[in-house]
Specification:
Distance between the termini: 85 Å
Radius of gyration: 29 Å
Strand order of the largest sheet: 2-1-3-4-5-6-7
Strand content: 15-25%
Number of helices: 28
Number of domains: 4
Helix content: 25-40%
Shape: globular
Amino acid sequence: MGKPLLYLLAGNGSAADWWEDAIPHFQHYRVQALELPGFGANPAPPCTDLDEYAQALLCLTERGHAIMAVGVSALIVLHALRRSPGHFSRSVLLAPVGAFLWQRRLPALMTPLPLRKSIHWLLSHKPHWFARKFSRQPWTPAQYRRMGEGYRRCRAFVPFWDQLRADTALPLLEWITDPVELVWGDQDQMLGVTQAAAWSAILARADLRIHLQPGWGHYPWIDSPGAFASWLECESQGFIAHSKGGRLRLAELAGQPVPKALSLDDSADPRLATFLDSASEGLWAVRSSSFVEDQADAANAGLSTTYLRVPGQEVAARVTQLRASGVEEVVVQRFITPVISGIAFVRHLAVELEWLEGHLEMLADGKATPHRATLSRLGRAWQSGQFDECHGLTAIALWDFLQGVLKVFHYVPGDIEWAWDGQQLWLLQYRPISEHGWRRHLTSANIAEILPSKPSRFVEYAQRRAATSIPAIMARWDSRVLQDNEPFTAVFGGASYINNDLFLARLSDWGISATSYAGEVGGATPFLPWRPLRLMQSLPRLWRMQHRARAHLVALAPGMQRFDQELAQLKAKGADGHELANWFSRFYVFVVQGNLCIATALASSGGALLGRPPTAYDDLHDSPHRLPWETDPGTPRPALRDLPLQPQPAWPIAITLAHQLGLPGLRGYYLQIREWYRDNLMRIFFRLHHAMPEAQRAHWFAPHPQARSREGSFWQDGSQASEQASGFMIYPGQVQGILGQDILLEDSLDPGRYAQYQAANAVIARMGGRLSHGSTLLRELRKPSAVLPQVNSEWLGRKVLLRDGALRLVETHGRQHE
């Protein structure tokens, strides 16, 4: 057999000849340097986004080979693995770009186009001016010329900075399960090893190993080409990121106060004696670090024994005991004697605390009842209990410490064990939270309008995968959403609900009352008051939100066309259900992000003074793709027909200008866009349903086992919300008839039931929002209708009168009762 193939891919500005120094040194691999579209001698134009670059990379490479990639190209490799799991047999990524993009200075610096072009010119013609950034050691004039020539030929350099955004960099990367090796050099002047902890959280399910290379900069294949090739070919294992010991080491590298620790798999490891000698009189904790513990989808905590207060001479024996019990790795850690210790379930918006005096072992053994409190940024409704100053530790100091730990793990919610020794706080453990009933506000409003209480396994699979990626679109106008790291939907009782905290956090930061949000989407929300000063400070941000949400509307049509083409390709190659489900997860992110931008445009539209053009509901006489529960691709469909995507509605020049200038009065036109968007999505869903292989429909289209059992709004910890949803009139009119027959009574509005709504004399829903698809449909039909949360079920089958949103029971002797 021939040598295995290794692809080499450098970062932005790169060309294939950047690897010339290193290529002769490879002995085990045959190597091939790559150039993406717009780079080096590749004649193809630069791609329009990271997804296109990922697809281009997949087309340039054969499945089953290894790849070494750097910087932004390392991020493209991850996007390729997200699209095509297993495509690369080995992925070695040096200093990947993508973590903390909204907080890094360089992306902000490169935002102005003139400055970006100027830097590109300087890199192309004066590369030696950037010598200290390239490397701490001098290069030859030929190496600088080669570097500059690569930048000069790179047509993708300038537009690439527009595509490398915090809202597009990391979607769905947490679902990558491939083996991935991340490498950082301690001399890297561009991206330091402190980002390793963040990447361990971003790549939460990957088989992830971390390499720390002393002496390496950002271009080790130029600095020391022979040593670089030798290291790459020896396939050094690095350390496992997703283990107790791995996360502690990552936290320490990121500057967190971790008691001195050592991870090892053999008590005879020579490092152990040296490590113990560093504190010969101290006591030690010897803890399991099993590879099945502390994973993103299963904590499996407590599988093995932890030994505390172990004298140095007994540590080796305890390590041997744990290894004999089947533990793959053991952590030996300096024992901290705390005066207070606790567990905290931490997210950016809130911290849920359990603590006691002394060591946590009393809590684990059930010998003590902990104190409990919930602290939150959002207000009293989210809080419970209180943390009073204890042994010199204040609530503010503990909050700041826990939030600091959360930050280094890219704000991914975590379960943190901590200790206070009377002088400082210590991090004893961080693990991702696989399941926890937060004090978080959820609602079935809106989601109940478009999905049955038991959606198909297919849609639930995509919905859960997409949940943490969807909100990133909001970072275009408020990057704080990335720190909050709140999912779009959250799980309660095994079913998915809309996460109100995602939206209420933004309203709280902007100083806006939550009342309007509840009215638009339906349901009720906890109390959030108007804060005029905060609102005034937020006006520039709100203007940016309106501008960028409106600008996104032009991306809807080409985005749908691209996904429609991808679906056709998948069907042509006979893709199985799992491939279709993964494609749908990416499509689901696109769909909901588009809806969020449309909803933002609607919310800031300032009424419909400029007119109400007809929507897609004006022409649904022959629409096999529109049916009840149409948003679930698992819903049975009629026989396959050719249903091409419809072009985006054309607006008069005056309306287009008003849209571009951000003028008010465009609600009618944004409703037209929203219903055109939905109708086209249903056409794709129609094709998606028929693309699923017949033999796999029974599995993927079967109902998800757990049903949404909660109506309205409630707290994720299980407590019922006390807020009462308010009713409102959708369309005026007076109708008398039998409730449940002439006047339909719906739990929630489903736009797929347009035929039933058209046939009814009037429609009442127990739940819904003013801007929901169902409300829009009923206004289009000019059907007397209302949302009334408290309709008496005993009135079903009896004669009632609906008059302009008010419902009355009509008695046979002529009297009426509300």
